[in-house]
Amino acid sequence: MKTVRSAPQPGKSRLTTSAMIASIAAEGQKTKPAPFGHALVELARSRPDVVGMTADLGKYTDLHIFAKEFPDRYYQMGMAEQLLFGAASGLAAEGFMPFATTYAVFASRRAYDFIHQTIAEEDRNVKIVCALPGLTSGYGPSHQAAEDLALFRAMPNMTVIDPCDAHEIEQLVPAIAAHQGPVYTRLLRGQVPLVLDEYNYKFELGKAKLIRDGKDALVISSGIMTMRALEGAQALKGDSADVAVLHVPTIKPLDTKTILREAGKPGRLVVVAENHTTIGGLGEAIAALLMRSGVHPPFRQIALPDEFLDAGALPTLHDRYGISTAEVARQIKQWL
Amino acid sequence: MKTPTNTLTNAPKLADRAYNIRRNALRMGEVQGQGYIAQALDISDVLAVAYFHAMRYRPEDPTWEGRDRFLLSNGHYAIALYAALIEAGIVPEEELETYGSDESRLPMSGMASYTPGMEMSGGSLGLGLSIAVGMGLGLKRKKSEARVYTLFSDGELDEGSVWEAIQSAGHYKLDNLIGIVDVNNQQADGPSTQVMAFEPLVDKLQAFGWFVQRIDGNDLDAVVAAFDAAKSHSEPKPRMIIADTLMGKGVPFLEQREKNHFIRVEQHEWQLALAALEAGR
């Protein structure tokens, strides 16, 4: 049962939710504006079958960039996620490639049956693009999509992607368009951090990429947790801990070959880090893969707890739930 | 069934089609010993008019680009649509005997990936009109003359998604969308009007911006006139045909069953049902 929260202490200075909701970028971090919106415009110039659809969240999923450029290829479906995905299925049935956007919570929780029956079961070519993945909102559980990867992993025919930064989002847009079939991708919107460009990284659908090598621990991560892992590995260098980072943006299908190759190298702690509940996401997917394949390294998970998360400012919450850079570094050091 | 009294030259032929659809449905029901027979019998007149008067399609090419799309939102009416698809020559008649069996292309609940001529996977209710909105928008994008027909049930009016779709079709003025709601006032837990009040349906749909007709869905002439009016209506609005129907229509002892949402019929009764249907021609 829920306990009643006690009143905050007066006089203490606090971060506010509103200051943190618009972007997950840290102060001073290199960013790019609306990478999805601009990449979709670029794609649509050569793909007349691309249409954009949203459920009253065009401005909040960066789809407004596309809407401005291609107003006659943009469908506003109103605050109606079931309709959004049913209609996306209908447009796909007529040969178009809808990019349908909303928040991850609404696609995964509210419209699951519609995506299951009208899109996945019929293998329709709809790209589902969803903002506010995992813990990237301070609004509390209504906006925190901690279970979306578990739900969409479980859906047959669905490709599931959790990108890290602006560089990756730009690249995944043409990549998922080239893939025939339904795709669920998480989205970072607004001023999106730019990280992977400095690692000579290239997104390939279904491929995991070793971003950084190291002999003491291997962090296998997706989404913003790859950014945290890279920062955490850098921080641990001072402690003489040598940490490798394997980025796995495609959650389904998993790049089992690369994951088994890296996790199978002897003498390393394996840590899976994800911006998702410990249940049913990348961590459990990899744990099952390793067990099935007879690869048994020491294994730890960095993930959100199986509970309804607090409302508040994101830096505070990321610390509280162990997914900030400092917490990632602290946990790995403790386990080594 | 009474012979239609009006002067439409094709009416007698449509009556034969409706009879054949009912007979096909009963024969499939006999294969399984049970099914949504009462619904199949009530909607056969509408299906006869849709497939043999209103719609454009090519039986030998069920995915012909120029075809009118027919979405079966209420997937449990699959037995009725199979009966029509067999009559239309889209599904071979010999497959009738496989209905609901292993390896059959005719599963108990309608799915697009199984059956030629089936445009969507229903079963989970309230999906069809949403898909129809997308198809309607897509056909307009392609400047296609094809229409999207969508059959759904009065019980589906309980689903919020149906009203999302109704609202958006009005918003987008989808004049290529023709909805048909089968009002037989029967859903799983009892009479639809008691499970969840949905009247006044005409007023509600008109308020949402639709061109609405309400007809006796078992009067072939009325059904023909409604489909004609829905196609030729000049206002830029989506069109709805509210078809009041009688569960079990054409087989009197089934019409009188109190619990007829999902009918179990004793072995000997199937022949009685076919005989009753024949007697009422």
Low-confidence stretches of chain B: 1-7
Low-confidence stretches of chain A: none
Number of helices of chain B: 10
- End-to-end C-alpha gap of chain B: 5 Å
Helix-strand string of chain B: HEHEHHEHEHHEHEHEH
Q: Could you say which structural class the secondary elements and strand pairing of chain A correspond to?
A: alpha/beta
The secondary-structure element order of chain A is HEHEHEHEHHEHEHEEEEHEEHEHEHH
Major sheet details of chain B: 5 strands, parallel
State the assembly state of the protein chains. Answer: heterodimer
Using the alpha-carbon principal axes, give the shape of chain A.
globular
By DSSP, the count of extended strands of chain A is 14
Amount of beta strand of chain B: 5-15%
Tell me roughly what share of residues is in helical segments of chain B. Answer: 40-55%
Number of strands of chain B: 7
Q: How much of the polypeptide of chain A forms β-strand, as a percent range?
A: 15-25%
Describe the structure.
The complex is a heterodimer of chains A (336) and B (281). By secondary structure, chain A is of the alpha/beta class. In chain A, 37% of the residues lie in helices and 20% in strands. Chain A has a seven-stranded mixed sheet with strand order 3-2-4-5-7-6-12, with helices on both faces. In chain A, helix 4 runs parallel beside helix 6 (112-120). The mean pLDDT of chain A is 95. By secondary structure, chain B is an alpha/beta fold. Helix content of chain B is 42%, strand content 12%. Chain B is built from ten helices and seven strands. Chain B has helices at residues 11-32, 37-54, 78-87, 128-141, 160-171, 192-195, 201-207, 220-232, 252-255, 267-279; strands at 34-35, 69-72, 148-153, 177-183, 211-216, 239-244, 263-264. In chain B, the strands form two sheets. A five-stranded parallel sheet of chain B has the order 2-3-4-6-5, with helices on both faces. The longest helix of chain B is centred in the first third of the chain and has 22 residues, at 11-32. The radius of gyration of chain B is 18 Å and the shape is globular. The interface between A and B is medium-sized, with 28 and 31 residues.
